[in-house]
């Protein structure tokens, strides 16, 4: 089973960036990212089952499966970016990597994602149990579908099974409290996102003992498409200064358009941590909001 879509091998890149998609999406959501990042960062979009080249597979998967797939390719310093559903998935993957004593990422980047413990009602709650018409209407009203998708009914029909499976995963998520991660978290919020508020993005600060930063980008829930240049520039600049990035030669292009807002950087020394990217102590009990 192939968890990654090849974007061209970059063996000389000092760092890898694993990308986890939003509900209903596949690896192609990140198809423009390799060119945007350039040769210094090897972008590896994760292809979850049930979509695109894995469309014939059962769309259900476990956190442990995704963690195993990423760990198998983590042969150099790496970071994880998750958007919307992918943000919480990325968080649970890092928890699983910590639990099993494997190398942790330099950074966890989350975009358009509510912090794991946030339970406030949102526009997409319960969508996995709605009929097709209501599901699509509420996603469209809440800005949870790419604008052009509804213009292609045949794509919508193909998308619905995996979309329902992913929305069921979102509806069933229950945060299990645990120790904050020994990994810095960087959150990205769209200034006009109707699905996730700024406060719900800022709440990610509670889940790291290694520093938190919040950036705001112009745009809605899918700013990762609309403001790609700004998003990439911020991630590249952050990776440049991340401890453990070899050579720190990642060039930082100028940010186009309005500058992103940023909170202060909160730093702490995480307990039970050995080195910059590995947790060393006895494995903790399995803390996850989804079945592993």
Report on the structure:
- The chain has helices at 33-37, 63-73, 85-99, 132-141, 153-172, 198-202, 223-226, 228-241; strands spanning 15-20, 41-45, 78-83, 108-111, 185-190, 212-217, 261-262, 273-274, 278-279.
- It has 292 residues and is of the alpha/beta class.
- It has a 7-stranded mixed beta sheet, with helices on both faces. Strands 8-9 form a two-stranded antiparallel ribbon.
- Strand 3 (78-83), helix 3 (85-99) and strand 4 (108-111) form a beta-alpha-beta unit.
- The longest helix is centred in the middle third of the chain and has 20 residues, at 153-172.
Summarize it.
With 292 residues, the chain is α/β, with parallel strands linked by helices. It has 8 helices and 9 strands. It starts with 14 loop residues before the first strand and ends in a 13-residue tail after the last strand.
Layout of secondary structure:
Elements: E1 15-20, H1 33-37, E2 41-45, H2 63-73, E3 78-83, H3 85-99, E4 108-111, H4 132-141, H5 153-172, E5 185-190, H6 198-202, E6 212-217, H7 223-226, H8 228-241, E7 261-262, E8 273-274, E9 278-279
Parallel strand pairs: 1-2, 1-3, 3-4, 4-5, 5-6
Antiparallel strand pairs: 6-7, 8-9
